[in-house]
Amino acid sequence: MRNDAIKRDRGGRSVPASHSDALDEARLWREPPREPELMDNRRERLLPVIAAIIAVVFGAMALIGLREKIVRVVPFATALYSAIGLKVNAAGLDLRGVSSRIVTEGAHRVLTVEGEIVNLRRASNRVPPMALAVRGADGRERYAWTAAAPKMRLAAGESVRFRARLASPPSEGTEVQVRFASLDGEAEKSTR
Questions:
Q1: What is the pTM of this model?
Q2: What SS3 class is residue 168?
Q3: How many domains would you assign to the chain?
Q4: Of 142, 153, 144, nearest to 179 (Cα)?
Q5: Contact in structure between 150 and 129 (CB atoms under 8 Å)
Q6: What does the pLDDT look like over 43-91, one tens digit per residue?
Q7: Which of 2-11, 64-73, 175-184 is the least confident region?
Q8: Residue 14, exposed/middle/buried by CB under 10 A (0-12, 13-18, 19+)?
Q9: Alpha helix locations (H) across the chain?
Q10: Per-residue b/e over 167-191, b at no fewer than 16 CB within 10 Å?
Q11: Is the pLDDT of residue 125 over 50?
Q12: In a domain, 21, yes or no
C-alpha cells in the first residue's frame, strides 16, 4: 500500500484513504440529533427559569393573601400595600351603613351616629373602642370623642349595631368620621 493511500483517523490509527473519506463524509452528512435529545437539552436549560417564575408567582400570592398577618408583624408594610393599591384591614373589622343625623331633644341639638360593626375574620375578634370626629367643610377636626363598642368581642362573621351620641355638636361640622381608636393610622374609617 502506498503512503498517500493511507490516512490517519482521529485516534491515530492507520485507515485506508477510501475508508477515511467515507468516515469524513459520514460525519459531514450524519443525522441531526434526535428530537428527544433536543427536548432534554431545552428542558435542562429552562428548568431554572420555570422554577424562578413559579417561585415569584407563589411569593406574590403569599404577599397578597397574607397581607393582614404581614402588617401585624411589620406595621410599616401598610404603606407599601397602599402604594400599590391594596387595602389592608389589620383589625379584621368593617364599619358598614354608617349614618349621622342631628335631632333636637328639648332645647338641645344632639348628633347621633349609627352603623354596624362586622367581624371579617373566621375566628372570634376583639372590638376596640370607636373614635369619632366631627370635621368642618375645610376638613379640619372640630371635635373628637371615643365611644365603647356595644360588644367587646364578636364571633366569626358576627355583626353588631352601634349608636354614638354627642350633645351640642359644633355648628360648623359638616361630616363625621368613625374609626377604631386603638388602630390609629391603620384604622378602618367611615365618613358620613
A1: 0.60
A2: coil
A3: 1
A4: 144
A5: no
A6: 788 888 999 999 999 999 998 888 888 888 888 888 888 898 888 887 8
A7: 2-11
A8: exposed
A9: 17-28, 35-65, 67-73, 77-83
A10: eebeeebeebbbbbbebeebbbebe
A11: yes
A12: no
For cell 338641645, name the residue. Answer: 108
Beta carbons within 8 Å of 17's beta carbon, 6+ residues apart: 4, 5, 6, 7
Q: Residue 186: its pLDDT value, please?
A: 43
Residue 160 belongs to some domain of the structure: yes
Cβ pair 165, 111 in contact under 8 A: yes
Q: Which domain holds residue 127?
A: 93-191
* Angle formed at CA 67 by CA 66 and CA 72, multiple of 5 degrees: 105
Determine the Cα–Cα distance for residues 135 and 132; give it in Å rounded to an integer: 10
Contact between 187 and 92 (Cβ < 8 Å): no
